[in-house]
Amino acid sequence: MASTYRLIKYASFAVLFAKEQVERQKADFIRLGVLGDWDNPYLTMNFKTEADIIRALGKIYQSGYLYQGQKPVNWCIDCGSALAEAEVTMKIKPHPRNQAVSVHPDFDYALIQTTRGFLILASELRQACLERYDLSGETLATCKGQALEHMPLQHPFEPRTVKIICGKHVTLEAGTGLVHTAPAHGLMIILPDRIMARPTKARLTARQVYCQHPLVGGLSVWKANDVVTDTLNTSRHLFCLKNRAQLFTLLAP
User: Fold this and answer.
1) Is the pLDDT of residue 33 over 90?
2) Beta carbons within 8 Å of 45's beta carbon, 6+ residues apart
3) What is the pLDDT of residues 80-103, one digit of tens each?
4) Cβ distance 117 to 252 under 8 Å?
5) CATH superfamily, domain at 86-199
6) Which residues contact 102 (CB under 8 A, 6 or more apart)?
7) Which residues contact 178 (CB under 8 A, 6 or more apart)?
8) What is the mean pLDDT of the chain?
């Protein structure tokens, strides 16, 4: 009962704050000469608007367009609030939260033997990658990305495997033609009729501190970046590092 009362009290303060901001912004727009129906603004917190939303949602549900799933919420570490996807311009290196590696089903991929081991690279990006890694190599076989689907890959510093999956969001503009996929950091796995975000054990607090992870547990994402980089470098999974925001690593099949 007490928790319900606190929730209602919190919501009432939120409504008051929102109304204050609406009036302040309205005054600014009017002062700037912006035309609008200022006496009848569209406000999502109005009861009529909320009722219309529920009615529309009911029609969507009846038509069978709703399904249950998971979706990550982009979060601002500094201000402690949610972010719109359009506001996110840079993401941390989320290797501890990796769940898959994406390839394009229609691209050609090559198996290349190098002095650092076997590499799988998009054929079109093969030469650029080898030059970036300061390597030479021999192409042993090629195939379409579709043929690689479900191939298991060993995570570079965790005792688990992840799978190769197919996704048409993969491009040949840069990189290797294989995309590190951590759905908890954004919707990266898009399947027909469904967006799937796979769960991860490397969870973060609201202040972006890793919880209960053997390598980075208790560290902020910023400090974890250095630990991840050093670990990959020590294990020779780090192939190229131009700056701390860009990593090229190998997940061994």
Assistant:
1) yes
2) 15, 18
3) 777 776 666 556 555 676 778 888
4) yes
5) Valyl/Leucyl/Isoleucyl-tRNA synthetase, editing domain (3.90.740.10)
6) 164, 165, 166, 167, 169, 170, 178, 179, 181, 188, 189
7) 101, 102, 103, 120, 121, 122, 164, 170
8) 79
Cut 0.70: pTM above it: no
Supply the Cα-derived Rg of the chain in whole angstroms.
24
In the chain, what are the domain boundaries? 2-66, 86-199
User: Which residue in this structure is represented by tokens 């290349």?
Assistant: 112
Residue 92, pLDDT score: 53
Which of 184, 163, 42 shows the shortest CA–CA distance to 103?
163
Question: 152 versus 89: which is more confidently predicted?
Answer: 152
Q: Please, are residues 253 and 163 in contact by the beta-carbon 8 Å criterion?
A: no
**Predicted local confidence at residue 236, as pLDDT:** 81
